[in-house]
Amino acid sequence: MWVSPEDVLLAGALWITERANPYFILQKRKGHGDGGGGLAGLLVGTLDVVLDSSARMAPYRILYQTPDSLVYWIIAHGTSRKEITEHWEWLEHNLLQTLSIFENENDITTFVKGKVQGIIAEYNKNHDVKEDDDTDKFKEASAKFRKLFGMPEEEKLVNYYSCSYWKGKVPRQGWLYLSINHLCFYSYLLGKEAKLVVRWADITQLEKSATLLLPDVIKVSTRTNEHVFSVFLNINETFKLAEQLANIAMRQLLDNKGFEQDRSLPKLKKKSPKKVSALKRDLDARAKSERYRALFRLPKDEKLDGHTDCTLWTPFNKMHILGQMFVSTNYICFTSKEETLCSLIIPLREVTIVEKADSSNVLPSPLSISTKNRMTFLFANLKDRDFLVQRISDFLQQTTSKIYLERELNSSLNSSDDERTFNLNDSSVPTATQALMTMYRRRSPEEFNPKLAKEFLKEQAWKNHFTEYGQGVCMYRTEKTKELVLKGIPEGMRGELWLLFSGAINEMATHPGYYEDLVEKSMGKYNLATEEIERDLHRSLPEHPAFQNEMGIAALRRVLTAYAFRNPNIGYCQAMNIVTSVLLLYAKEEEAFWLLVALCERMLPDYYNTRVVGALVDQGVFEELAREYVPQLYDCMQDLGVISTISLSWFLTLFLSVMPFESAVVVVDCFFYDGIKVIFQLALSVLHANIHQLLGCKDDGEAMTVLGRYLDSVTNKDSTLPPIPHLHSLLTDNGEPHPEVDIFKLVRSSYEKFGSIRADVIEQMRFKQRLRVIQTIEDTTKRNVVRTIVTETAFSIDELEELYVLFKAEHLTSCYWGGSSNPTERHDPSLPYLEQYRIDVEQFKDLFNLLFPWANGAHSDPLAVRFFRLLDQNGDALINFREFINGLGKYREAACPRKYSSLVCNYWPATQQPSVDEWMFLMLHLSLCLKCSVILLFAVKKQNNPDYRHYLKLWNQETKPKRENTKDLTKLNQSQFIELCKTLYSMFSEDVAEQELYHATATVTSLLLEMGEVGKLFSSSGRRDLNLDGRSEPSMCARDVSDPKISQEPQDLGDVFGPAGLENKSSPCEDGKGDEASELPPMQDIKLEDSSPKDTGTSSAMLISDDETKDDTSMSSYSVLSAGSHELDEKLQCEDIADDTVLVRGGRAHDRGLPHSTSIDKDWAITFEQFLASVLTEQALVHYFEKPVEVAARITNAKNVRKVGRPLLSTSDYEISLSG
C-alpha cells in the first residue's frame, strides 16, 4: 500500500535490494521469504518479532531517492511480492519519464511526495476510508495480527504486549495480541514459529499470580488446556484489559449483549506518542465509568467525563479535605483520599450557579457551586480550572434544556389531570401515593414508652444531621452518617433514606411520569411473567396486615408487572415479590418501583434472571471469603454442602426470608448504604457465631437446623412495631430456643470482624466466579441437550458433545463477525435447552461444508441451502441443534435409499417438496422391487414376453394402499434434473472410485433421459388425440403435466414406467368411460419405434439396456452423458463437469438429424420412482451411498480446518504449533 513519505537514513541496514533505478529502490526485509539471508536473516526475523519491528515494517518496501541525496523516503510497503510489484510497475510506467524532465532535485522530491499523497487521498475517497484515532504503528500491528491469525476485518485488535509464553518448561518470547473476541500469541525465534489462539468465550479461569521463579504470571485456562504468560512490561494493564474482554464475552454468553464501540470519545491529540488504539481508550473509559457509577450509585447510562485532584471545604469541621472531583454528563461528585472521611454527589439538575472565586495563597484556584437548596460547595487547588468550568457549564446547559423540555411535555400531558391520589375503588388510578406502613401501622395494646422515646431520639439525631450536613441528594456523607445507619433508621425516614443511599432518587427525578406510563401500558397484558406474579402475590409477607387485603396486593401486582414490562430479560423471578413487598411498606409505590430497579439492575446485578447467575456468582465469592476468614470451618461446611444451600436464600432475599421482619429491615438499611459487602459481612458473622455447633454437625440437615434456630433468634428490641409472626422455611427441632441475638450488635460485630472486605476486592472475586459459573451453565446446557437427543440418534455422547461445540461455535462466529440474522433471535437463554442456540442458513453452509459428505464442488452451497430448507420444519429460517443432528444423522446410516432421497428432495419443486421421512416411506417399499422391475421394463422391446403384466399387476396392487399416506409429488422437470446431475458429478470428485462412479452416473442419466423422452412422446400423443377427437382411449390417456390439477393427482404405476396410459384404473381424461379400462393394455400395442422426429417434432432416442450402455466402446470411461435433446448438452457442458467429459447421445444418436433449441424442454419430466429405480441398477452408486460416514473423522477434520482456515471456530483453543 502507498504510505505518506517518511525519511529513512540507513536504507541498506537489514534490507536486501531486489530492484533499482535512478529514483526508486525495491527492497525485501532480511529473514522473510525464501533466501532470507541465512543466519543473519534468522536473527533479523527473530529481532523483528521480539522488538516489535515487524509491526512497523512490512517485508517489502519501495524507497525514493534523488541521485545526489543521502536521504531516502519510504513511499510504499507491502505484505506480499505481488502487491509491491504492482506499485513498482506503476512507478516505472507513470513516473520515471516524467521525473527526467525536472532539473531541480527539490522539485522532483516535492512532486513525488505530492503524487503519492494524492494517490492515498484518492484511494481513501473511493473506498470510503474514514479517519480514526489509531496511530500508524497500531494500524500496522493490526494488519499483522489479521494476517498472522487469519482474522477478518471485523475482528478488531485492542492492544498487544510483549511477553513470554511457556510451553512446558521452555519460554518463547513473542507478542500477546488481545482482540475483542480472542487472545492470540505469536513468536518467531531462529526459524521456529509458534501460534496460539484462544477465544474469550472458552476461558474458564483467568488469574494473575506470582511464583518464586516467575514473579508476574498471567494464567489462562480453558476446558482442555492451561496457558502461562510471563515477563510483561506492564502486567497490571494487560491483566485488567484481559479481564474486561473476558467479561464482555461472558456477558454475550449470558444475555447476547455484545460489544459496541463508543464513537463519542474525544479524539487523541495528533502527536500522541502512545500506541493505544481507539478501542483500548473506549474500554478504559468504560472501566472508569463503571467504577465511578458503582462508587456513587449513579444510573447505568452515566459516563465519566474526567476527574481531577482537588480539595473540598467542609463547613461541618472547618477543614479543606484532599480528594478527587469527578465530572460526568449529569453529576459532579467528590470523594476524599481517606475513603470514609467524606463523599458528595451534586446532580447538575440541582445546580444554580458555577463560578470561579478569587484565588489566594490559602485558597488557590477556587471554584464555587451553588444549589437550589441554598447549599454552596467550595472546591480549590484545581489544576485546570478554566477548562473544568467550561466543561461543567456545557453540561449544565444541556441539563437545563432537558429539564425545560420535560416540563413542557409534562404540562401538556397533565394539564387536565389533578394530582393523583390512591383510591381503592377507582380502578383507573394507577398508583398509591403513600407507604403501606403508614396506612397499616399497628400499635401494640401496651405501648412501651421507652421504645417510642428511643425512636423519637433517632429521628432527632437524623434531623440534627440534616441540619449540619445537609439534606437530600447533596448531603455530605461522612463517618457520622454511617454510624447513624448502623444504629437503625427511624421507621418514618426509611423510605426517604433508602432512595437517597441507593441512588434511586436520581433515576426517579430524571424520569417523571415513567412509572405511571409503564403501569398503564402493562395493565391487561398477560404472559409467563404475569402468571408467575399472580401465583406469588399472596405468598409475599402474608403475615403482614398490609398484604392481607386487596390494597397491598394490587400495589405489589402493579410494581412487579411494571418492572417485568420494563425489563423483559429479567421479567419476574422468585424472591422479587418478598423484597418488593418490604419496599412497599416503607416507600410510595413509585419509589418502591425505582428501588426495585436499583436493586435488580445495579446493586444486585444478574440476581433475578432465570438462572440467578448473580446469586450463584456471589455464592462462589462467599465460599472464597469463608475460606479466608473462617478457614477452620470452611472444610467442614464444604463436606456438608451447606454453604451453597444457605447463601442462595440469604442473598436473594437480603435475609428477609430467614430473619424476623423487624430485624431483617435493619440489614436492608445497611445494604442500601454500603452495598453487597454488608451481606457478606453478616453471613460470615453468622457462621463465626455458630462455629463450634457447626463443627459438631454430622449432616447438612443438622447444620441447617443450627443456623435456622440462630437466625430465628435475631431480634430488634428497638422496634416500635408489634411482633409479626415469622414464617421461617427452615425446620427447627423441638429443643430449647436459641438465646436472643440483638440485630444491632450482630451488625456492628460484622463490621468490626469483617469490615476490611473492600468493594473492589469483591468485584475482582466476582469476575473470577462469573467465568466459572457461566461456563458451568454452558456445560450443563450441553449435557442436557445431549441427554435429550442421545436416544433419538445413532451418534455417541462424545460425538454429540463435539458436534454441539461446533454448532455453538458457528453461532458465536456470526455474533462476532455478523450474519444474515440477528444474534438475539438465534440465542435466547430463557428458551428450553435445545432452542437456546440456533443457526441460520449462512452458518449452516459452513457446517455443511465441514461435516456433510456431499460438500464438494460449486454446487455445495445451493445443496446446503436446499437441505437447510428441508430441516427447517417450522419455516423460521433457523434450525436448532436437534434438527441439525437429525439431518446429519441421515448421512451416517448405511441405508442407501435414505441418503440419495435426501439429495433428490433438494431438487424437487419447492411447492411439492416432501420431508426426508416422507421420502423414506416411499423408498423403503420401492427399493426392494424397482431394480428388477426397471430392468424388466427396459428389456420389453427385445423380449416379447407377456408374463411381465402379472408382476406389474401384483406390484401395482401392493403399492396402492401404502402410497395413500404419502405426499403427492410432482415430476422433476428438465432444469431441475440438470442441476441434480451437476451435483452428482461434483460429489464424486477425488473419490477412490471416481471413474467408476462417473460412468455409472452417465448410465443412469442415459436411462432417465430416455424415460423422460418416452414420457414426453406419450404426453404429446395424448394431447393430440384430445385435440382431434375430443376424447382418448382409456388405455392411452396421458396426463398433461402442465395442468396443475392433473399434475397434483397421485401418480400410479404408469408414472414409474413412462406413459401414464399404463395405469390400472379409470382415465381422468374421459368422463363416464373410465370403467372400460379394467386391465393393463398389451405392451405390443405401444409402437415406440413409430414415433420418429418427423412425426412429433422432437427427438426420440432408442431405449438401451444397462448392459448395452456399459458395453458401448464409444463412451468415455471417465464420464458419459446421454442426452435426449441438444439443449441438455448445452446445459451440462459447464465448468462443473470435468474437461474430459464426453457428451454424446444415447444409442446411435449421431445418425439422426436433431433439431437444436436454446430453451429448456418444458414437456420433459421424470418421477422420483424412475430416478430411484435407475440408481438402484448401478452397484457403484449403491455402494457409494451405502458407505457409512465416519463422523468422528469428519469432526476431527472440522476442528483442524478451523485451526488452519478460520481460527475463530476452534472448539476451544489452538494447540501451540511449531514450524521450522
Automatic annotation (TrEMBL):
Claim: Repeat is one of the keywords in the record: yes
Keyword entries, A-Z: GTPase activation, Repeat
Source domain of life: Eukaryota
Keyword Repeat in record: yes
InterPro entries in the record: EF-hand-dom_pair (IPR011992), EF_hand_dom (IPR002048), GRAM (IPR004182), PH-like_dom_sf (IPR011993), Rab-GAP-TBC_dom (IPR000195), Rab-GAP_TBC_sf (IPR035969), TCB1D9/TCB1D9B_PH-GRAM1 (IPR036014), TCB1D9/TCB1D9B_PH-GRAM2 (IPR036017)
Domain EF-hand: 859-894
GO annotation terms (biological process): system process
Any GO molecular function: GTPase activator activity
CDD domains: PH-GRAM1_TCB1D9_TCB1D9B, PH-GRAM2_TCB1D9_TCB1D9B
Membrane-spanning ranges: none
PANTHER family: PROTEIN VASCULAR ASSOCIATED DEATH 1, CHLOROPLASTIC, TBC1 DOMAIN FAMILY MEMBER 9
Protein name as catalogued: TBC1 domain family member 9
Organism for this UniProt entry: Amphiprion ocellaris (Clown anemonefish)
